[in-house]
Amino acid sequence: MFLDEVTLLVESGKGGDGIISFRREKHVPKGGPAGGDGGKGGSVIFVADEGLSTLFDLKYTKAIRAKNGENGKIKTMRGKDAEDVFVKVPIGTMLYEQANNEMIADLTTHGERYVVARGGRGGRGNTAFATARNKVPRIQENGEPGESVELRVELKLLADVGIIGFPSVGKSTIISAVTNSRPKIADYPFTTLIPNLGVVALKDGRSFVLADMPGLIEGASQGLGLGIQFLKHIERTRILLHVIDMSGESERDPYKDWQVINDELSHYVVDLSSRPQILVANKMDAPKAKETLDQFKKQLPVGTEVFEISAALDEGLEALLYKTMDLLTITKAQLTKPDDDSESLIVRFRSEELPFYITKPSDGWYDVQGPAIERLYRRSNFMSDEAVSRFLSQLRRLGVEEALRKEGAKNEDMVRIYDFEFEFVE
Ligand SMILES: Nc1nc2c(ncn2[C@@H]2O[C@H](COP(=O)(O)OP(=O)(O)OP(=O)(O)O)[C@@H](O)[C@H]2O)c(=O)[nH]1
Ligand SMILES: [Mg+2]
Question: Which ligand 1 atom is the nearest neighbour of the CA of 184?
Answer without folding.
Answer: 16
